[in-house]
Amino acid sequence: MNLCSPGTTQCGLFATYGPYVPACKLIIRRDIFQEPRLRQEQTICTAVECQGVGLHSGAPVSLRLLPAAAGSGIIFRRTDLDGFEIEAVSHNVARVSYATSLMKKGVLISTTEHLLSAFIGLGIDNAIVELDNLELPILDGSARPFVEMIHKAGIRRQRRPRTYLRIRRELELREASKFIAIYPANAYSVSYAINFPHPLIGRETFQVDLSDGNYLRQIAAARTFGFLHEADAMRQQGLIRGASTENAIVLTRDDLMNPPLRFEDEFVRHKVLDLIGDLALLGKQILGNVVADRAGHAMHTALVSRILKDKTLWEETTVEDLSRSTSPTTEQTAEKLGNAHPI
Ligand SMILES: [Zn+2]
Questions:
Q1: Which among 86, 197, 242, 268 counts the fewest CB atoms within 10 Å?
Q2: Which residues in the chain show pLDDT less than 50?
Q3: Beta partners for 180?
Q4: Domain residues for 120?
Q5: 27 Cα to the center of ligand 1, angstroms
Q6: Ligand 1 mean position, distance from CA 328 (Å)
Q7: What is the pTM of this model?
Q8: Residues 138 and 178 occupy one common structural domain
Q9: Which of 161, 184, 218 is the last residue of a domain?
Q10: pLDDT at position 339, please?
């Protein structure tokens, strides 16, 4: 879907505007402050569904995405438990180890990060996510199938102005050799470093500015990964019961079981994907620069709760607020926003 040209936001028009990218960019630059898709919240046009298995539970699950009213955010709904709803927000975060799970009144929704990452990457603010089991389907191990579902549904602008969470002061968290921080910035960008003692990984770093369609091109297709020699121990802990070479990159001691990689540095790109999904639990699109070094789901979600606890770290802003200011920084921000989330 291309939301750059006026009047092209109807459902079902996605993926037909490839050749017009330069024109699309021209429109954005000419009309930064009038770009409605950045000013306003978005949802999907129609319901879409898929089936799969949970990565850790191995449980079969049907997943359905539905449009939601402006201001509602992302809401998970357990159709197998009388439609019990859990909002995708920080205070519902429960277990966080190899995946991020939400829990409310004892009801669990597990492995939420890849779908939430796709929602952020495509600029979806509001949606209902129905599932009939406790864990989201892992599909191919990346966010790409979710992106395709959202594209299939179409994206609809809503009337409500979108509120961004704009970082004003830095916050740094350390835990032994792990590090995560967020700094003020004029757009949403992520920088990640990992270090695994494996000949195909080692120290990998990746930096991405989540504008100009970079999420779709550079992040969405990166798959989760695991080490074959850890698989038995993890299964005994009740983990990765649904894992296979169809939904994860499987590493032997010195090679891959299921080549090829989609990117040479697919491992660190997947960490970026996870981080974006976990930070979605802030409940708003972010204007800030996130830096992570060997962090994981626990540190990602710790950053979210620390940010939300200290209201001096951030402010809420809309494109309208930004366009009222005349400072160069603000104009730059609006321009960055103008290039965000091409679909
Ligand atoms: Zn992941």
A1: 197
A2: 1-34, 326, 342-343
A3: 173, 292
A4: 18-161
A5: 35
A6: 37
A7: 0.87
A8: no
A9: 161
A10: 52
Per-residue model confidence as pLDDT tens digits over 61-98: 999 999 999 999 999 999 999 999 999 999 999 977 88
Q: Give me the pLDDT at residue 188, please.
A: 94
Distance from the CA of 274 to the center of ligand 1, in angstroms?
5
Tell me the CATH number at 193: 3.30.1700.10
* DSSP tag of 291: E
Catalytic member of 56, 114, 270, 297: 297
Catalytic residue status for 297: yes
- If asked whether residues 180 and 303 sit together in one domain, one would say yes
Q: DSSP string spanning 212-273?
A: TTHIIIIITTPPPEEEHHHHHHHHHTT--TT--TTTSEEE-SSSBSSPPPSSTTHHHHHHHH
What would the two tokens of residue 81 be?
Answer: 């438990």
Q: How many angstroms separate the alpha carbon of residue 296 from the centre of ligand 1? A: 10
Number of domains in the chain: 2
Total length of the chain: 343
Task: Report pLDDT for 32.
Answer: 34
Are 168 and 153 in a shared domain? no
Question: Looking at the structure, do residues 323 and 177 belong to the same domain, yes or no?
Answer: yes
Predicted pLDDT of residue 212: 76
- Ligand 1 center–CA 19 separation, angstroms: 32
Both 41 and 178 in one domain: the answer is: no
